[in-house]
Specification:
The chain is built from 2 helices and 5 strands, in the order ααβββββ. It is an alpha+beta fold and 112 residues long.
Amino acid sequence: FKRATLERAEKFISDTYFADVNLRGRVYPDKEAVASIHHYGNAKRFQLPAEAVESRGEVKIGDSFGPTWATHWFRVTAVIPERFAGKEVRLRWNSGCEAMVGRRDMSTSGVQ
């Protein structure tokens, strides 16, 4: 019984199974990859990238960063397709750790 319940729950949020009718498919009915993600290392904690950063180049999904407690900045470039006109657009970002999302010089979301 437990296994069947877990499998059903997994399919309810899956991006592979029943994506047209499950919860994920309803919340995120359409998706588009970002154009690029660039990584910037920073020797000082919580310092804005414009103040002192070292570009470490473009990254891809699945790359990992460290060490623990290090500060990393990412510049995400996205092109919003015409088919999204008039719709709410969200960036799905999972850093796997504490994170703050900002827009230019303004924080827009706190720690995950």
